[in-house]
TrEMBL record:
Belongs to the HMG-CoA lyase family. Gene3D superfamilies: Aldolase class I. It holds the Pfam family HMGL-like. It comes from Rhodotorula diobovata. This is hydroxymethylglutaryl-CoA lyase. Keywords: Lyase, Metal-binding.
Length: 394
């Protein structure tokens, strides 16, 4: 079971501190006039990777509304759930109901193929459960056009998570890829513990490269590299990405999936995007999620934090409207007199989703940016109320 599962620009000094050797190929995203292919794509994993570790039972309607709110806020790649055994991951038992809901049907009708609602399948049985659902065989509007599979980069984590070796887990995925091809489903691969394992310690980057190559050779269009226990730092990602490229998996086919246990996830993501050529980042609204095999490990890096960091760095993403290049204002997502209204409004809407789901779960919002934006909003509301009160006295 899986529990945890983009032109050259002038670089700020902190980028140079983590530079790769001069002989290595360096890449950077332009801060303006970027073609769509150079945008960073965010994959929202909160409804699956985030919620699967919650202890209290979450109503299906809450899961569906979370996906609705995320899509309304601008996200177009949102994991909808997983077809794993309810015995091991009870929070995902209602994935079929989520996919079959009228609300998600409406989203698919509205957004068409621009909306991706992937689901995780651990094996052939999980894929069969998806394919048996009414409507999945629709040529025009299937329940989902994409599945995700997972494997570990370390033997210790593989045996704890899947009760088999890495080689055995890859072998078990071969029929999943074959059936997915037959059914016209895209397959995304996840690789866990690419930088460190709670059982085996440091993971050899060459092993990560081998696993990434195996997934690509089987048909994965993209391989998401997971720092499952959050020990990664920018320099550590250099070796991992280089090892994957040496095995024939280019950075453009990789995604960064960072957990923020030691507070280094955003630094790693900005390094991967601006220096290493990675174009896809996984994130979770309100930093939902965690790793049960690593005591004290916090959840995924929050979507709000990633969107803010990218926008404030002048890096385009597929979540917010592109900034007006001539303005040159990196903080417009915060609003204010010099801000661009649409981007600020959309950013606040995204942060509100994190506040909402945190309240639904009865927990503190794990996003630093989300909490800061809530404080700004509450202060603005107090100031507006004070002004209204002053006018009423006139």
């Amino acid at each position: 079971m899986l529990r945890t599962v983009a032109g050259t620009s002038t670089r700020a000094p902190w980028h140079r501190a983590f530079a790769r050797p001069a002989s290595s190929t360096l890449r950077a995203l332009s801060t303006s006039s970027q073609p769509d292919t150079h945008r960073v794509k965010l994959v929202e994993v909160g409804p699956r990777d985030g919620l699967q570790n919650e202890k209290a039972v979450i109503d299906t309607s809450v899961k569906v509304e979370l996906i609705e709110r995320l899509v309304k806020a601008g996200l177009r790649d949102v994991e909808a759930g997983s077809f794993v055994s309810p015995k091991w991951v009870p929070q995902m038992a209602s994935t079929a109901d989520v996919l079959l809901s009228s609300q998600l049907s409406a989203l698919r009708s509205t957004h068409g193929s621009s909306l991706s609602l992937p689901v995780l399948v651990p094996n052939a049985r999980g894929l069969s459960s998806l394919l048996d659902l009414p409507g999945q065989d629709s040529a025009d509007s299937p329940l989902t056009r994409e599945i995700a599979v997972f494997v570990s980069a370390s033997e210790g984590f593989s045996r704890a998570n899947l009760n088999c070796s890495v080689a055995e887990s890859l072998s078990r995925l071969e029929p999943v890829f074959a059936t997915a091809r037959d059914k016209g489903l895209k397959v995304r691969g996840y690789v866990s513990v690419v930088l460190g394992c709670p059982f085996d310690g440091r993971v050899d980057p060459r092993k990560v490269g081998e696993v990434a190559r195996a997934l690509k050779n089987m048909g994965a269009y993209e391989v998401s590299l997971g720092d499952t226990i959050g020990v990664g730092v920018p320099k550590g990602w250099d070796g991992v990405v280089e090892a994957c490229e040496q095995k024939g998996v280019p950075a453009a086919q990789l995604a960064a999936h960072c957990h923020d246990t030691y507070g280094t996830a955003l630094a790693s993501i900005l390094h991967c995007v601006s220096r290493l050529g990675i174009r896809t980042v996984d994130s979770s609204i309100a930093a939902l999620g965690g790793c049960p095999y690593s005591p004290g490990a916090t959840g995924n890096v929050s979507t709000e934090d990633v969107v803010y960091a990218l926008a404030a760095s002048g890096i385009s993403s597929n979540v917010l409207p592109d900034p007006v290049a001539a303005a040159g204002e990196p903080w417009e997502v915060l609003g204010g007199e010099s801000g661009h209204g649409e981007r600020a409004r959309r950013f606040e809407e995204l942060c509100a989703v994190g506040d909402w789901i945190s309240a639904q779960l009865g927990r503190e919002n794990g996003s630093r940016v989300g909490k800061a934006m809530k404080g700004r909003r509450e202060r603005r509301e107090r100031e507006e109320a004070k002004k209204r009160g002053a006018k009423a006295k006139l």
